[in-house]
Amino acid sequence: MATPIVEFKNVNKFFGDFQALKNINFALDQGKFYSLLGPSGSGKTTILRTIAGFTSPTSGTVLFQGQPQNNIPANKRKVNTIFQNYALFPHLNVFDNVAFGLSIRHVPKDEIETRVMDNLKLVHLQDLANREINELSGGQQQRVAIARAIINEPVLLLLDEPLSALDKKLRQDMQYELRELQQRLGITFVFVTHDQEEALALSDEIFVMDAGEILQNGTPVDIYDEPINHFVADFIGESNIVKGTMIKDYEVEFVGKRFECADAGMKPNEPVEVVLRPEDLDVTTPEKGKLVVQVDSQLFRGDHFEVVAYDADHNEWLIHSTNPVEEDKDIGLFFEPEDIHVMRFNEKEADFDARLETYEGE
Ligand SMILES: Nc1ncnc2c1ncn2[C@@H]1O[C@H](COP(=O)(O)OP(=O)(O)OP(=O)(O)O)[C@@H](O)[C@H]1O
Ligand SMILES: [Mg+2]
């Protein structure tokens, strides 16, 4: 195995009595796109600042390409950071903003010229080299910030919510560009966001954080299909989460009925939570449904109807239906055993992985 670019071992960070990072462990590989995803205050920026060397851990070890970094200052690390507000120099034009890092290192003029223009081409700004910063759109400023960050050829680029100031359409365009640029350059990106769709679309691997802890990490598909607990299931995409009982392996009970499912490895009759995604529920007649619910309301969402309904136990169900339904009427919900995802209460990631291993290998 190649040496990881960055490794955190048992990293803790206190601000006074407040613990902002709780025993963080991870290893990041060369050339991958990682996202830190979590609500405000969960510790995302603190992790980035710790990687960059703007803040140091209270305890634990940060390694960069296998070397401990605790005493290495920020400007000696092969890391670049793009902040939410881009921090461009307003009194310099596009070219000079991108050239800045090379100029202060006294790189020869003609080399600066070539490298700046090459980098501006990468972000499609070669025609705007002489523009003032305040004459650029938000998306163009974003690209200047990217060009300025990558011109130093960092092996690691840290991006702290770089797209949050952009409108929806531009944000989507920039998502494609960022992903494409990351793949072309082969640099490791660590991208901070609290937008779950953005993390799912861009990442090779996602770290879901809450209150200073990494709750789960995995590929977007793993995290979407196999959320480890209520928080992750709720935070990543829309979910229906109801309480149930694991009768035995591959059989779960909820809303007073028993269902075949694809999960195993729990205790008989263990209390659990059950997740069903709105898009995995098919609307049918009450006779053909595995569950019967009463429609409360619906909204047209362009490519589907979003239906809110209630079961006999008063649980709310969100359903994505291709056809409109009738309000106040009973409908049946059909789903496959593998659409049911069963979660244990308070299961930690290591136990979750070990449990999956035991029955997925069968
Ligand atoms: N210098 C500091 N002094 C004291 N507390 C701090 C300091 N920096 C961060 N914190 C606290 O640590 C916690 C984590 O902050 P952090 O900035 O990492 O959150 P975040 O996940 O990036 O949130 P956001 O999405 O709002 O940017 C917060 O409760 C914050 O108030
Ligand atoms: Mg932050």
From TrEMBL:
One of its GO terms (molecular function) is ATP binding. Its EC number is 7.6.2.11. It catalyses: ATP + H2O + polyamine-[polyamine-binding protein]Side 1 = ADP + phosphate + polyamineSide 2 + [polyamine-binding protein]Side 1. Gene3D superfamilies: 2.40.50.100, P-loop containing nucleotide triphosphate hydrolases. It holds the Pfam family ABC_tran. Residues 6-236 form the ABC transporter domain. PROSITE patterns: ABC_TRANSPORTER_1, ABC_TRANSPORTER_2. Keywords: ATP-binding, Cell membrane, Membrane, Nucleotide-binding, Translocase, Transport. It is an enzyme of class 7 (translocase). GO terms for cellular component: ATP-binding cassette (ABC) transporter complex. CDD domains: ABC_PotA_N. Belongs to the ABC transporter superfamily. Spermidine/putrescine importer (TC 3.A.1.11.1) family. Part of the ABC transporter complex PotABCD involved in spermidine/putrescine import. Responsible for energy coupling to the transport system. This is Spermidine/putrescine import ATP-binding protein PotA.
